[in-house]
Design a protein that fits this description.
By secondary structure, this protein is of the alpha/beta class. The chain is 35% helix and 14% strand.
Length: 325
């Protein structure tokens, strides 16, 4: 069963008659502080949809929404359940879970040790993290519970926690789907440049962090030409990444409408081909996806890198119980 990547619920009480209040749900229940929406989460470990294309089946995210504004982000639909739209609101109305560390510690007491992804519904190191500094607590909770985890990010702010991540034995997957700056400006307008992210990979490797590259999303008919894939993998290898995990663009509900709206404006001749390529769940044709990931695998072999989802991180002995009190 495919379950959307959304929060299960929010621990907040309404102070007004919600039936008569037409404001979005989030504006009725959240505390707005410095432009961010604070909501107390009832649960923070969320199921990752099978359509996501990554190895982990469960995730924790301190933030929902992302200022990187990537048009192909698969987490956009979650904003709709808060009364916001999956387009501009996702990029600009960032939801913060200020109790994420406390809730995570409580949920990890009964966790079965499966690896977790960190930062799927919003980059854990986006600008909001400079204000809230939630990630060190998340890293500490996962480390003390001996749960393997991978942090997904595009932001150099992750370097602030490089020593914590290295000591925790965590993986960091830096997202670099292409190295063409024109494409980046069009579909990832709020994200760092590819060059900045390549430099981030090098810095993480130098700091002793297990660093891979999430080569996602590969954009059909825009960033999937052989020379584009070759240039991207070559520069990833030069940066020192241990491996590449390729994922072709997914277009689940929420993401699909926002992405195709842009495509209609920027590349109208491609809209029909996208409609043929994607199924109703937002997955690309298996033949197409297999061809692209096969090309990337060959390139990775050429440059001496691993390709595909890595094996789950080893489970380390749990820290002394007193550390959790």
């Amino acid at each position: 069963m495919r379950v959307p990547l959304v929060g299960v619920g929010w621990d907040a009480l309404s102070l007004v008659d919600e039936a008569a209040d037409e404001r979005p749900l989030i504006e009725r229940r959240a505390v707005v502080r410095e432009g961010f929406y604070e909501l107390q989460a009832r649960t923070v470990i969320e199921r990752v949809p099978q359509t996501a294309g990554i190895a982990q089946r469960w995730a924790v995210s301190p933030y929902r929404g992302c200022a990187h504004a990537c048009r192909g982000c698969g987490a956009r639909a979650g904003h709709g359940r808060l009364g916001l739209d999956a387009g501009r609101d996702f990029d600009t109305r960032i939801v913060v879970k200020p109790n994420v560390v406390a809730r995570l510690r409580a949920e990890l007491v009964r966790w079965d040790g499966q690896e977790l992804a960190v930062g799927l519904s919003g980059d854990g190191y986006q600008a909001a993290e400079e204000t809230y500094r939630l990630m060190p607590g998340v890293i500490g909770a996962l480390s003390q519970a001996a749960v393997p985890f991978t942090v997904y990010t595009k932001s150099a702010l992750v370097l602030r926690d490089a020593q914590l991540l290295a000591r925790a034995g965590a993986r960091v997957a830096v997202s670099i789907a292409f190295v063409d700056e024109r494409i980046r400006r069009a579909v990832e307008p709020g994200a760092p440049t590819a060059q900045a992210r390549l430099e981030l990979v090098s810095a993480l490797v130098e700091a002793g962090v297990d660093c891979r590259v999430l080569m996602a999303p590969v954009l059909p008919l825009l960033s999937d030409a052989a020379d584009q894939l070759g240039a991207t993998v070559r520069r990833i290898a030069a940066a020192g990444a241990r491996g590449v995990e390729p994922v072709v663009l997914r277009l689940p509900p929420g993401t699909r409408a926002w992405y195709l709206e842009w495509l209609e404006q920027a590349h109208p001749q491609l809209v029909g081909r996208y409609e043929e390529l994607y199924d109703r769940a937002g997955l690309p044709s298996p033949d197409y996806e297999g061809r692209i990931t096969g090309q990337i695998a060959q390139l990775c072999q050429m440059y001496g890198m691993g390709c595909g989802a890595p094996q789950a991180g080893p489970r380390r002995p749990r820290a002394a119980q007193l550390a959790l009190v």
